[in-house]
Amino acid sequence: MKKYKRYTITSALPYANGPIHIGHLAGVYIPADIYVRYLRQRGKDVIFICGSDEHGVPITIKARQEGVSPKVIVDRYHIIIKKSFEDFGISFDIYSRTSNKTHFDTASEFFKKLYEKGAFIEKTTEQYYDEEAKQFLADRYITGTCPHCNNEKAYGDQCEKCGTSLNATDLINPKSTISGSKPIKKETSHWFLPLDKYETFLRKWILEEHKDWKANVYGQCKSWLDLGLQPRAVSRDLDWGVPVPIDGAKGKVLYVWFDAPIGYISATKELTNDWEKYWKDEDTRLIHFIGKDNIVFHCIMFPAMLKAEGSFILPENVPANEFLNLEGDKISTSRNWAVWLHEYLEDFPDKQDVLRYALCANMPETKDNDFTWKDFQSRNNNELVAILGNFVNRAMVLTSKYFDGKVPVKGNVTIVETELNRAIIKLKKNLEYSIENFRFREALKALIDIARLGNKYLADSEPWKIFKTEPEKVATILYYSLQIAGALTSLCEPFLPFTSKKLCKMLNLSPQKWDNIGEQHPLAEGHILGESFLLFAKIEDEEIQKQIEKLQKTKTMNEQVSLSVEPSKSEITFDDFSKMDIRIGTVLEAERVPKTQKLLKLKVDTGLDIRNLISGIAEYYSPESIIGKQVCILANLQPRNIKGVESKGMILMACGPDGVLKLVSPSELSVNGSIVK
Description:
By secondary structure, the protein is α+β, with helices and mostly antiparallel strands.
């Protein structure tokens, strides 16, 4: 691997239309913070960049719902988000915002350079226009009847009832959510980035040069590239955002997908006058930490933008995580089904590291994972308290009791201590390797295993039993135990920064140089330790039950305001049912449909044939998770062209009152083609 002089680390800009929740933390911000803190421990030149994404339709919608300006919304949530990150110990070098003048100037300059190079194509298209409001309508400002399930409240980009991705022009009886009137189609001109022009470059750069990227990242990029890239609009008709900086573009702003990643560059400009070396020097390693919903934007679109501009480096890695669920259900901001960071910090003061630990241990690195309050409690009580905290406390208490709080003079060193030191060095190397390969759960395990070694060493040695007869041996045991504690001050800092500070205070020690850990003993003989205190406190059942009841209350409220179970439809005859040919099939391949959020393209063995189906289940199933599953298929449904693909049939799904879709599958393995009767 190439050795770099410096590192530019970015984490996805959170939308400033709501607070931060644990899904954001586990997916993006904790892994990024661990990696950056590790690099700093190794003495690397690194900057950590983030900020609030303050443009786009979700913000204007929230503003309209509250009857305030978009600026009121972004000002409110920027403050909440920034403070939550600071209180939680996410160590950004700068947390900026895309409403800053520096960002407006940077985004405008970027657009103008591409425009002057002829990198865009201008196209005139028909879009819905509200004559009463006198404005073009973004997809979310249009509702109508879904052509697939007849839901009368479908949005212009998707139907939240059946999950199908839509175009606004697909809706039946569309109406504007602004005025309630029926919109008309009106021509409008926009600038498009011809992504197809960069397809050859992207295929070589991703599929050949970056085969080592995480499988979920590589696979999603390959799916997009294999289906062929299309020009994508970089401007839209909206009154909130960075204005398109050319003549004749009044009322048009930069599309947020184009605008937001430039925020990394503008934030770096705010941070340092030497910003160019972090963005244009080939000796800089650029890494984007994101969630899986941002993979295409950071691996295909932003690199195409940078390539078109011509002077910027490209990301060397984009270690995207999957999604984190909560108590077995998908986190949903609209349903308030989340653990909000600012509320956690109020409910569990001084327990930032407990949440960091639990989320890292359950990090959705290769597949969606689940956070439960019981697991959170178990991680704290059985690992942080019983292993790490217990080891440090025993070492400190015994040293205070037998050696007046001073590091004892070690006696004869046995093979036990020699092997102990070797084991710690090995675990440290494992920890380093795991972090450098973005396997943070694995790295955390190596860290806690070091504390386990210390605990076992004390338990096996039983110094409290032999002090009167072998005080020199006890001195050696506690000397080495304290050296392990000293090593942990630095080793745990990337994961548990607040604990690292507490441990330094307890040991009366400055953080150690990373490379010296295991090679040099940080605590000299006779060193006076600080006052001993518990690093972690047990979390009682009552505290956890309170959080569970809080979620249950949210679920109950959602059930009260949501639609009840749909009533049965009118009766049909057995002959009507017999017309449906429902078969068991196995999913052979699955990939996302480009330019959609909800659709998967599936290749299914129906027993009759192998066919393609388009299904709106991408919100609930990743392509990797559905491959190999058996499903029920309506096999004789009339074929339909969806997004340029012929879909032959329909996968049957169960849809509850909450709108969540779940596969209908046989309880036991069945022969493909088996008839459902």
